[in-house]
Design goal:
Strand 6 and strand 7 form a beta hairpin. The chain is globular. The chain has one domain. It is an all-beta fold. Strands 1-2-3-4-5-6-7-8 form an eight-stranded antiparallel β-barrel. It starts with a strand and ends with a strand.
Length: 108
Amino acid sequence: MSLTGTWAGNDGSITQITEIQTDTARLIRWFSSLQTGQFPFTNLFTGAYLPSSSTGQGVGYIVGTWDDSPNINNSNSGTLWLQVNAAENFMQRNDSSEAYGTLTWTKQ
């Protein structure tokens, strides 16, 4: 399976994920934005997918860092920990080092 594609956030944001499979890792990059509402944002994320078992089956996790784009008034950055369901079509935020508005993402 692949996480590559368009994901909708529970806050109305749209996230474009690109997964890069290497011999030893599944690298994750995304561009995410929300252009309406009280807290618009645009950010970039770089991280890695970590399977929960040696078989790679079941729930997995994404860990990485994000940075707001400077074209919006926000200038936040931090680390995100996300849980990915077994079907790899739903993610939820487990933790973040800084405030991050999106709580869940659903693959479109």
